[in-house]
Amino acid sequence: MWAYVVRRLLVTLPTVLAVVTLCYVLLHLTPGGPFDAERKVSDAVLANLQAKYHLDLPLWKQYLYYLRDLLHGDLGASFRYADWSVNDLVARALPVSLAIGGTSMAVAAILGVALGITAALRQNSAVDIGVMLVANIGSVLPSFVLGPVLVLVFAILLPLLPSGGWDDFAPRYMVLPIALLTLINVSTIGRIMRGSLIEVLSSNFIRTARAKGLPMRVVVLRHALRPALLPVVSVIGPLAISSITSAIVTESWFSIPGLGKLIVNGASDRDYTLVLGLVVLVTVMAVLLNLLVDLAYAWLDPKIRY
Amino acid sequence: MTTRHKPSLARALATFAAAAAAGAAVHAAVIPPGTVLAARQEMVRNNGAEPESLDPAYIESVPAAEIDRDLFEGLTATDHHSNVVPGVAESWKQVDPTTWVFKLRKNATWSNGTPVTAEDFVYSWRRFLDPKTAAKIATTYAVYLANGMEVVNGKKPVTALGVRAIDAQTLEVRTAGAVPFLPAVVSVAQYGPQPRAVVEKYGKDWTKPGNIVSNGAYVLKDWQVNSKVVIEKNPGYWDAANVQLTRVTYLCVEDGNADLKLYQSGEEDYLYQIPPGAFNALKAQYPKEIHNGPLLGLRFYALNNEDPLLKDVRVRKALSMVIDRNILSEKVTADGQAPLYGLAVKGLAAIQQTRFDWADWPMDKRVAEARKLLAEAGVKPGTKLKFTYNNSDYHKKMAIFAASEWKTKLGLDTEMDSLEFKVLIRKRHDGDFQIARHGWVVTFNDATLFLALLQCGSEVNDQRSCNRKADELIAQGNAATDPAQREALLTQAAKLAMDDYPIIPLLQYSVPRLIKPWVGGYDEANGMDRYRSKDFYILRH
Amino acid sequence: MSTLPVVDSAPAGRSPWRDARVRFMRHRAAVASVFILALVALACVVGPMLLPNAYDSVDWNLMSAPPTRAGWHLFGTDELGRDLLVRTLIGGRISLAVGVLATLVSVTIGVVWGAVAGFAGGRVDSVMMRIVDMAYAVPYLLIAILVVTVFGRDILLVVAAIAAFSWLDMARVVRGQTLSIKSREFVEAAHAIGVPTWRIIFQHVVPNLMGVVVIYTSIVVPGVILSESVLSFLGLGVQEPMTSWGVLIHDGAAVMGAAPWMILFPAAALSITLYCANFIGDGLRDALDPKDR
Predict the structure, then answer these.
(1) Which residues sit opposite B418 in a β-bridge?
(2) C160 band by pLDDT with thresholds 50, 70 and 90
């Protein structure tokens, strides 16, 4: 198993390089550049700007410069946030996004699994429909509707929480954004849990356990849950990635200085280095998270072997 | 041309005369007698966007300039009535048409105790315009200084720039041609002083809290990217006695609705801009907190003068005539922006507002005339127009309105093209458009900044229009020494150029915002929408 | 004591589809959802043709008007005076069409990719899944802008752009399930008796995946419809005056306090449709469950 882990980790570097190259090409193909502004820039200044950022070199040479810096852990200087290096920006935004996205994933996972189990055990009953109705709120209403509703209820009508902002991980600023992300994620997890558990509950080995006279609770928790969790774990990976790196609506509505905002601003400002730096980060996170998910598969279903 | 707080050469001279004669310092926050101040003088203010930099040489956006004017004080400054007032320079004098001498005050210091000298300005301006620094906005401001353009284009060394320290307290500035509004030019944040020793020591990191040294009323305490910028009162500032606010937090919320929620839940005292469509409702809800002063800005549509359909002036005139700007202002945008029928906006210095001769005709007459013009130009109903704008609800609404006017009144079909902002700018610059949405807001108050939109070959003339006679008049106007004559010439130039219908002027920008009733110092007549934190104060509440 | 029926013809067989239909009918919410969804789709297709208002006619005197019986403005008007009832129905056409199309494309790609990767295992699995990892990291916005600039604006492009990013999750889910299924006895058995691999994948493995695929598909649908609204907002999808539910909701969210009807009706239409899709998904899953025979 460890050989498998090591092999996967070794593949990280070529994966990152492949993605970076792809995005590099894409960025330069996209119309508009980092220096397009309302007022035209003088040729002399433009020449100097390009020299400063190596943009006057042929594309492949620029690419090599970038790779060299990348391998030294230097993600370069941002165009859009001129006083900051990409390393700085990412280092500041990542903990914020991890706190919000990560916490919401944990809460959504627990809640989603619980709701899914409840619905599955009372399949097709009023409880099932009711639970699913509630759990699905987050998937039928877009976040740019849920966000304002949450703020309206908890920050304006009942002035319990601030309507947005950030103060060094102060809990009161984290509650509503986490709640929003959780609402959205809980629906996916809940539905998959329900469907998967229903399937597992009709398999032979469960029938055997029931026939043995084991109480339902034991049957579910000890026997059915593990294999039923497989598809749930499959989605937790991508959900976690997107909650952490692409929670752009949540972040802009609640004014949270996280990664989502950096990515969108970077793309719209054609901030090459910032976008590439974030791409590196997301790739590494995706690879690691997916590795964890794959290892979880092996734990959940003993027949899966690498 | 007699609004109360309009800066002009006459006013600047008057200020100079008064200051020089009396030798008195100009006070900042002018607090009406009897006002009771709050014990806690702190303010949270939304600035609209995350600043791209805090280095005066690199800032370009309005939000970044707003913060930098608190940190770095230039030779002159703009107060909350948008008047040019003394800054580091306590007085100045125009000794000949192209030479000015500024006298710096002796007690101006950096926040680390070292005095601010004329050498600091020489260093800073050279650094700003040095092509090696690669400041994108350098060209826009270089054009006023002697040899400015040559330096920016790398044709002459920075030492050739028209700025020289005669002694530690005296700075001589030479301009490229007569620039009667120079004191206004040097009040911009980009012409602020930079601390040489600090810049050279820390390089790119010199603006970080802990490294940065400033000479303004405030110092930088904390900077959280995409979250907030916190500044605190600079005790060593020469006018510290008149600075009330001890701490200001600048937020960078871009979304108008998020901004509104922060205001309503008490997280901020000053809303940057009311979200589109909400003005009337908020006016009813917060009658004492709503403000909506006119801004020195123009909303217009650029018409590609080289486009085969729009080459004919009759077509351009027709398109402009049929748009009902009253409905646009009252119903479509519905936030108190005044209709415009000319180039100049209300409050702009050195120019009179002009109107098209058809501006007061009833709409039926306008439509009939427009149809006649189109027929003469050979444009049939059903012809397609292409309209390019950047995706924003506000512009979308205006664009749909214009399209519907052209359709119902002239029978022309408009294809709408919503683009991302950067792509729109590119297309406009490249002339790859037929009709494009455009807006123009100026950084200091002088008519030449608006006229630049129409000058032949000007780098901001996206519509590629050219009226040589108008350009001549502009040149004559700038050479004129008599302010009244200058105004007359520039007004004439504007009318002449606009009669070619190169653009379709629509509305004058305004600044709809909400401010908590305990914030003092705001002036709706401030057409530049520039405020120094030292001009604000908090009333007891 | 039962009398044996006299049989003089072969007994009528019970087809698995009939069984599936019976099981589906048991899921009450799913059945109701089918009817509701059909109604919504019908309204969107036929409604605009029957209503007197056009979706793009602006009325400057009736801007942001609340719902009223006069002039058939049952849903009110938007800030340009356009009738919201018609716009909601027209918008539904786009949203439903995009939803169905993009989902079909992304599900097909995702299932095939995931099943092949999971079943093949080893190197092939590794490479295919690393490609998925890579695709996750690419900024979605960038691709969308590039696609539109290079190929021009087209609703089919929106579908393609959305599908291009929605298949990833499905592939991961399917691969996970496949890993589990392939190690089960019946697969071993099929292998042992010499059934060709492609047959095992498509005739044995995939049907067992259907449960999760169907559920996940009904999760993809809302995501797809919402992605379309984000793209349209960025100028990459439907252009004015055409609209979609996503665009209507986005515009309505901005003025929620002042004109709640602008968001209420399109959001209700979207929610109802998605709830129905979810319940139908759950019902289909129950119906197609191979073990529930």
Answers:
(1) B389
(2) confident
Ramachandran area for residue C23 (φ above 0: left; ψ -120 to 50: alpha; else beta): alpha
* Per-residue pLDDT band at B68 (split at 50, 70, 90): very high
Q: Are strands B42-46 and B247-251 parallel, antiparallel or unpaired?
A: parallel
C134 burial via Cβ count (<10 Å: 0-12, 13-18, 19+): buried
CB atoms inside a 10 Å sphere around CB C45: 13
Contacts of A18 in chain C (CB under 8 A): 134
> Cis link prior to C241 (omega < 30° from 0)?
yes
Q: Are strands B435-441 and B290-303 parallel, antiparallel or unpaired?
A: antiparallel
Structure tokens at B58: 């690199």
Question: CA A232 to CA A112: how far, in whole Å?
Answer: 9
- In B57-162, DSSP assigns E strands to 76-78, 84-86, 89-96, 99-104
Residue of C nearest to A196 (CA): C212
Greatest CA separation for chain B: 72
Nearest-angstrom CA–CA distance, B470 and B456? 9
Of residues A211 and B212, which shows the higher confidence score? Answer: B212
Touching C (3+ Cβ pairs <8 A), the chains are A, B
Quote the minimal CA–CA distance from A306 to chain C in Å.
8
Report CB contact under 8 Å: C240, B418: yes
Amino acid at B100: W
- Which residues, listed in sequence order, are joined to residue B220 by a DSSP beta bridge? B231
| pLDDT, average across residues A12-22 | 84
Helix axes C155-182, C84-120, angle to 10 degrees: 40
| Adjacent-strand bridge partners of B504 | B301
Q: Which residues lie closer than 8 Å to A32 by C-beta, 6 or more apart?
A: A270, B420, B422, B423, B425, B426
What average pLDDT does range C164-181 have in this prediction?
86
Judge: C137–A235 Cβ closer than 8 Å, yes or no: no
Q: Strand, coil or helix: what is B126? A: helix
Task: Kindly tell me the sign of the dihedral angle through the C-alpha atoms of B353, B355, B360, B363.
Answer: negative
For the stretch C13-66, pLDDT in tens is 666 667 777 878 877 888 899 999 999 999 999 988 888 888 877 777 777 788
Give start and end residues of each alpha helix (H) in chain A: 2-29, 43-52, 59-71, 86-97, 103-121, 126-135, 137-140, 143-151, 171-201, 204-211, 216-218, 225-245, 248-253, 259-268, 272-300
Under 8 Å CB-to-CB from B92, ≥6 apart: which residues? B16, B75, B76, B100, B101, B102, B103, B183
The helix (run of H) or strand (run of E) holding residue B122 is helix B118-129
Burial of B435 (0-12, 13-18, 19+ CB in 10 A): buried
Is B534 in contact with B70 (CB distance < 8 Å)? yes
CB-based contact C240 B391, cutoff 8 Å = no
What is the nearest CA distance from B240 to chain A, expressed in angstroms? Answer: 28
Going by C-alpha positions, the residue among B37, B535, B346 that lies closest to residue B338 is: B346
Q: Do A232 and A110 contact (CB within 8 A), yes or no?
A: no
Position C43 scores a pLDDT of 92
Cα C214 vs. chain centroid, distance in angstroms?
10
**Exposed / middle / buried, residue A299 (Cβ in 10 Å: 0-12, 13-18, 19+):** exposed
With a CB cutoff of 8 Å and minimum separation 6, the contacts of B283 are B290
B37 CB neighbour count, 10 Å cutoff: 15
- Chain-centre distance for alpha carbon B439: 11
The pTM is what?
0.85
Q: Nearest CB to A89: which of B131, B132, B225?
A: B225
d(CA B168, CA B446): 31
- Count other C-beta atoms under 10 Å from residue A95's C-beta: 12
